[in-house]
Write a structure and sequence with these properties.
The complex is a heterodimer of chains A (115) and B (113).
Chain A lengths: L3 E4 L2 E4 L4 E8 L5 E7 L6 E7 L2 E4 L7 E7 L2 E7 L7 E8 L10 E2 L3 E5 L1
Chain B lengths: L2 E5 L2 E5 L4 E8 L3 E9 L5 E6 L6 E3 L2 E6 L4 E6 L8 E11 L2 E6 L3 E6 L1
Parallel strand pairs in B: 2-11
Antiparallel strand pairs in B: 1-3, 3-8, 4-5, 4-9, 6-7, 7-8, 9-10, 9-11
The chains are: A mainly beta (115), B mainly beta (113).
Chain lengths: 115, 113
């Protein structure tokens, strides 16, 4: 149990499908993140929500659309994905604007395969 | 451009060996350096380092930060097969909108019996 829960654990989707990834954190944190992890690459930050406002976009393609309805929940809506989008998508949370620092706490990830 | 570099990329050792993993960084507005262990799923937090020269220790694992050299090492003594994992280094930077975390590619450690 990591304190950050992601669903589904695995997802296979065609390029024309629409699906959503869900993340929930039970740690009382005020920031949530989506990262993409591909083989042999550093974790790529996709989106950050700090105090429920999106503060980072990092030139992510528009086929990825985040949603943060409150500080505990984060979604990643997916549509018309490409095979190269296949990866492990990790959600994380942290507490920002505080001292001492808070590390990132990760969920188990969603393994996405685009066919 | 901010970046984090880890070495080696992969390592294979025998049980009982001692290993040293390296992380170097170039990040503006540095706040902390973090080490994570990733087996099959979620990266799990190991250490957060903010001050130079102060070793953090947890069992057989230890880590130290050198802010002058912009680097950190993670040591694992008396390795066990359960230490096999990817070890990720991340550097936290302060931004006006919160914290930004930059990750390296990781070091893949395999411990063979």
């Amino acid at each position: 149990e990591t304190g950050v829960t992601q669903t589904p654990r695995h997802l296979v989707m065609g390029m024309t499908n629409k699906k959503s990834l869900k993340c929930e954190q039970h740690l009382g944190h005020n920031a949530m993140y989506w990262y993409k992890q591909s083989a042999k690459k550093p974790l790529e930050l996709m989106f950050v929500y700090s105090l429920e406002e999106r503060v980072e976009n990092n030139s992510v393609p528009s086929r990825f659309s985040p949603e943060c309805p409150n500080s505990s929940h984060l979604f990643l809506h997916l549509h018309t994905l490409q095979p190269e989008d296949s990866a492990l998508y990790l959600c994380a949370s942290s507490q920002v604007f505080q001292d001492p620092n808070s590390p990132l706490h990760f969920g188990n990830g969603t393994r996405l395969t685009v066919t | 451009e901010d970046k984090v570099v880890q070495s080696p990329l992969s390592l294979v050792v025998h049980e009982g060996d001692t290993v040293t993993l390296n992380c170097s960084y170039e990040v503006t507005n540095f706040r902390s350096l973090l080490w994570y262990k990733q087996e099959k799923k979620a990266p799990t937090f190991l250490f957060m380092l903010t001050s130079s020269g102060i070793e953090k220790k947890s069992g057989r694992l230890s880590s130290i930060l050198d802010k002058k050299e912009l680097s950190s090492i993670l040591n694992i003594t008396a390795t066990q097969t359960g230490d096999s994992a990817i070890y990720l280094c991340a550097v936290e930077a302060i931004t006006n909108t919160g914290n930004q975390f930059y990750f390296g590619t990781g070091t893949s450690l395999t411990v063979i019996p």
